[in-house]
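$ run holo --ligand "2-acetamido-2-deoxy-beta-D-glucopyranose" --emit tokens
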Amino acid sequence: MVSSSSFSPAFMAAATAAAALVWASVLIGPCLAGDPFAFFDWNVEYATASPLGVPQQVITINKQFPGPVMNITTNWNVVVNVLNSLDESLLITWDGIQHRKNSWQDGVLGTNCPIPPGWNWTYQFQVKDQIGSFFYFPSLKFQRAAGGFGGITVNNRAVISVPFGKPDGDITLFIGDWYTRNHTDLRKTLDDGKGLGMPDGVLMNGKGPYRYNNTLVPAGIDYETINVQPGKTYRIRVHNVGVATSLNFRIQSHNLLLAETEGSYTWQQNYTNLDIHVGQSYSFLVTMDQNASTDYYIVASARFVNESLWTRVTGVAILHYSNSKGKASGPLPDPPNDFYDKSFSMNQAKSIRMNTSTGAARPNPQGSFRYGSINVTQFYLLRNMPPVVINGKRRTTLNGISYTSPGTPLRLADQFEEKGVYTLDFPTMPPTSGAPRIGSSVINGTYKGFMEIVFQNNDTIVQSYHMDGYAFFVVGMGFGEWTTASRGDYNKWDGVSRCTTQVFPGAWTAVLVSLDNVGIWNIRAENLDTWYLGQEVYVKVVNPESATKTELPPPDNLLYCGLLKDKQKAQTPHGTNSSSSASIVYVRDKLLILMLLFAVLAVIP
Ligand SMILES: *[C@@H]1O[C@H](CO)[C@@H](O)[C@H](O)[C@H]1NC(C)=O
Ligand SMILES: *[C@@H]1O[C@H](CO)[C@@H](O)[C@H](O)[C@H]1NC(C)=O
Ligand SMILES: *[C@@H]1O[C@H](CO)[C@@H](O)[C@H](O)[C@H]1NC(C)=O
Ligand SMILES: *[C@@H]1O[C@H](CO)[C@@H](O)[C@H](O)[C@H]1NC(C)=O
Ligand SMILES: *[C@@H]1O[C@H](CO)[C@@H](O)[C@H](O)[C@H]1NC(C)=O
Ligand SMILES: *[C@@H]1O[C@H](CO)[C@@H](O)[C@H](O)[C@H]1NC(C)=O
Ligand SMILES: *[C@@H]1O[C@H](CO)[C@@H](O)[C@H](O)[C@H]1NC(C)=O
Ligand SMILES: *[C@@H]1O[C@H](CO)[C@@H](O)[C@H](O)[C@H]1NC(C)=O
Ligand SMILES: *[C@@H]1O[C@H](CO)[C@@H](O)[C@H](O)[C@H]1NC(C)=O
Ligand SMILES: *[C@@H]1O[C@H](CO)[C@@H](O)[C@H](O)[C@H]1NC(C)=O
Ligand SMILES: *[C@@H]1O[C@H](CO)[C@@H](O)[C@H](O)[C@H]1NC(C)=O
Ligand SMILES: *[C@@H]1O[C@H](CO)[C@@H](O)[C@H](O)[C@H]1NC(C)=O
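-- output --
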């Protein structure tokens, strides 16, 4: 394998200029039959940044914070060589990417051994039959609280139509609560049995708030500016990558036309603001239809908290028209005024429907999978409780079990027939008695079954739940305790299919999922503190008939650890030296290098 960094700087400059052309050659190259490949070379390392005016350690990818947006298309093969330049182990997980038949690439501890510090590991997966807006992030050790996240934009293939006109631009916006304490310090706070407390702010694209109020925002903070042209329509993809805070998103004087969420096209409706919970992603179409008398505020403010105490937990960026006549000033646009009442937010969530008539990754309409008429074959009610103390440690539980990683990835243990690593006995219902416990208990999913999962939130804050390997249909939400009668209120027709759903406190959310993807898949709280303290479970889905045919074999570069650590060969330090290069495309085939040369020669007069 030859990395682009092994070329001379002069050659690289020319090659970068010709990158688009090279890319075209790769796409049409006769040497690559089938679906195209996209190559990424990432160096994950620490840097110092001061997003809220206080210098702190953050995690960058190729020196970027947030990391680069991975701009890819349905069915592409993605190859990401990740160099871990941190001082602790690393895994990158690809939230919402389904890795069909290939949980080996999921990047969580149940499927992968961590990449040791100083080592690199190459992920390879196909983005099969997916479109939409997702993000990746480091899944271990609370690292997401320090950065290391970035967008995954999966474009539709040209032959598939999209239920809206081509936007004039595509903008990715990461919003999230932020602490000025570093991630190791936050981890220690949790290990010491304490809560994290109120965040220090909300970042937008890694930057602090615009100084909309001189008392609240100190001078000298760098803020995000989104530059737009009047009259144009932009697709704005917003991801809540934060630790634990639900955020209300709004753009002053502009409507947000909701178009897509986590891979499903929605019924297009205007919102003046939308609640975006931790781990969720939305695409809005925003038309620049104002007169630009000033710039406009883009706001993400903490939800369901006492605003007068949480004023600093507000992200503010600037929407700047090219013909703008001045700076934004005055108060921020109002958030919903419903501190005591979460029904506005729940009703808003229920108003998000799937557009059943449009195709998504495939031409057949999204609604052609009639989930509402499929019989449920497995039922799980997963109850989240407020943190409890188990063996002297503060932990979180689902159905009375606080998950602990057994040290050997579950999928790896299965592959090498190591018994006793986990138990396949996760309870279908919350226990009615017995003390909460720590364990590595897994849900036994039936291949091709149809599972109903009800998340019941007994805590006092909103939780988001995410499932890897799948999208689930969000069919219902309600306050109080779920009962079988709650099924009468399910949306059996146009519930949206996504990978992360919110569950309001004292309420339930029901999802339906078709277990057609073999592997071992993580279900977790996306709220980082809740997850860190044990709120996750895995679902094992095996095809009893032909395990070898339906699942991809482990990759050649499989890492070993835990009970299998003796199989691991040492990795010689290789230093890709790609850290300083912004190049994301590297070529690994002599023929392609020749094509690259010709491409460069063709553009240099
Ligand atoms: C992403 O790639 C598509 C082509 O695959 C291109 O049309 C689009 O401009 C790219 N988007 C961004 C934001 O670079
Ligand atoms: C590490 O990167 C090198 C290229 O720099 C590559 O040849 C090797 O396969 C990578 N290692 C793994 C385990 O992916
Ligand atoms: C993280 O924060 C702790 C406590 O403030 C500090 O001791 C430590 O040096 C910090 N680590 C880095 C790498 O900044
Ligand atoms: C700035 O915020 C402070 C504290 O919330 C508030 O008292 C003050 O009225 C605000 N100033 C302006 C100009 O809005
Ligand atoms: C959404 O709002 C825009 C104005 O910002 C308007 O032009 C458009 O018709 C609205 N769309 C729908 C579906 O209501
Ligand atoms: C622009 O719109 C604002 C708000 O609608 C209005 O107050 C203002 O007078 C308009 N300015 C111009 C120059 O039309
Ligand atoms: C919010 O906090 C302030 C200051 O502590 C308090 O006076 C106010 O009553 C609180 N508001 C609500 C709605 O609880
Ligand atoms: C639904 O999708 C169709 C394309 O099949 C599109 O024409 C229509 O505008 C969409 N409707 C809404 C409300 O988003
Ligand atoms: C679903 O279950 C009902 C009642 O048990 C049964 O009559 C029906 O045939 C089943 N439908 C399918 C598609 O299996
Ligand atoms: C798991 O479920 C399968 C059916 O899907 C069943 O055959 C198997 O016995 C179950 N395993 C355990 C440990 O319950
Ligand atoms: C939690 O469960 C207890 C016991 O069922 C109930 O009394 C309480 O109201 C619940 N709290 C929430 C926030 O759901
Ligand atoms: C990386 O590049 C630098 C400068 O070109 C060189 O001195 C160093 O040896 C390289 N490191 C490795 C591990 O190849």
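-- notes --
The helical segments are 9-17, 19-28, 183-191, 343-350, 410-415, 528-532, 547-550, 590-603.
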